[in-house]
Amino acid sequence: MGEAVRGLAGKRTAVMLANHGPVVAGKDVEAACNAIEELEATARLAMLTCGCRPRQLKAEVILDVVTTFNVEWEA
Question: The pTM is what?
Answer without folding.
Answer: 0.63
